[in-house]
Amino acid sequence: MHRLWTARSAGLALGLNLVFSAHGRILTSNAQLLPTYDYVIVGGGVSGLTVANRLSEDPKNRILVIEAGDFDQDEDSILIPGLAGTAVGTQYDWNLTYVSNPDAGDREVSIPQGKAVGGSSLLNRMTLDRGSSADYDRWSALGNRGWGWADLFPYFKKSETSTPPSDELVAEWDVGYDESVHGSSGYLQSSYTPWIWPSTKHFVSALTGLGIQIPHDAAGGDAVGGYFTPHNQDPATITRSDARRAYWTAASSRPGLSLITGRRVTRLITKQTAQGAKVTGVEFAASEYSTPKVVKTSKEVILAAGAIHTPQLLQLSGIGDPAVLSELDIAVVADVPGVGRNFQDHLYIPVVFSCDFPLTAANLTANTSFAAESMALYNTHRTGPYSDATGDFLAFLPAESFTTEAATLHSLAKDQDSTTYLDPDTPRSVKENYAIQHALLTDGLIATDQAQIEIIWTDGTFITGLQHPFSRGNVRLASKDPFAAPLADSAFLRNPIDVKILVEAIKFARSVVQTPSLAAFNPVEAAPGADVTSDADLEAYVRGAAESLFHPSGTAVVGTYELGGVVDTEFRVYGVQGLRVVDASVFPMLPATHIQSSVYAVAEKAADAIKSSS
Q: How far apart are the first and last CA of the chain?
């Protein structure tokens, strides 16, 4: 405390007043900034706040986090689990869309991304699952030593404080829990919902009746089959536990940590040295009309802006593929062809049935009395429909579990030229990296330890997600204007294997509702519709209905430079000193999971890498 007040007094004497509030050490004007920080972190979302928290454990570090958005105001749409996802489209969302995609009906698909302190952890549906061990072992199979499941597993545990399911939940739903695979001292709260929509029981029964396994606790790397998943939810208050409330709040009073909001980083400041380019600071501005401000860094700039804005900032700063940069007459600071390439996102298609369930989530919007009673129950006892973020029971299925065409799909993939569906201007090194990925994806089609689809069930609706897309897109600049949204091309469904997998998933959903457990509720197919039966018609439905599951990644991939890597295994950007990337941009391949917990784990790993080199 003495150090804190000494630092604050010195700041006041220099006219560098700092605001201390419930939010902590927040700067409210550029005049309060120090000229130089040890670390400048670009982005105050999951990865940025995780790294900021861990670096600020050393009181000697001076750290500045720059966030384009602001703090949320504890709105119900943020905090109440039953309203999770309703902050999408608000001021806390960048409100981005992917570019028009001819392989997805020429549509511009929405891609929500958090623009607030806490980032996308404020917008998501609070699912806190992990992929299977095989998913992360693929990362190390691409030549990334120290990036396999065994390497990441301690960081999954480090990030969380896990609360087991209640005795009531275990008794009614048989939720398995293995204490050894969960963390007990992390900042993020992980717990199970106190209330589950009753139709879920019939879905679970339908899957088990089809022979789908239920692992005891999928968090230990056996994330294949159907299982109950925890949420990032405080078990005491039954409210969202996000990066702001977990990682920022715990670190906000540390003397070396500062945060400024409402500022967008527009450029990395670099200089040329005998060893190559070196980042010396960042330029940022509150708007395109305000005067830019520069702060310097004595150690590193850490990019945590997400898989869309991180490659945008690298390219604006002259770090990327010279052929792409030359199109906008941007001088090359570092030749890193992989920047913006390897773009991946999970996508889904809905398969919808109307069923005669007596109680469904639709009652919350269709029945005002039920909604009012449910809110009263939540406010007084923290249970009932508003205590549930949905997605309590997830199914992650290998191909053999949902289709008889696994061998055919595998054969089609083996016969493909891996370059056929890549962008024509894809650099050679990126093509070579993808060739290895393609082989791993192909093997995965006949593997039993890797899920190809996810099913999220809600009262007759199957949200059917493609987990290991073969398609690869890119992110590139629309212009040299840093306030212009970049051109993010998801390449959804470009590779026809992705379409064929989803067609098989539709057929599987239809078979699930015909099991005795669900057929008793008289399902009537609303989408794609019972009259849509041919593979050609189903493919057309898939292309017209596909939407994002909000998991963009891969645009600043970890890997060797010769294979299109943007960062090395210590998160350092090739060809540039003093620069790292710590967000989902570094993921080589998407794991079969909602990626929130993976981003926390990778950021925890990044923090250790930074600390070990300082």
A: 25
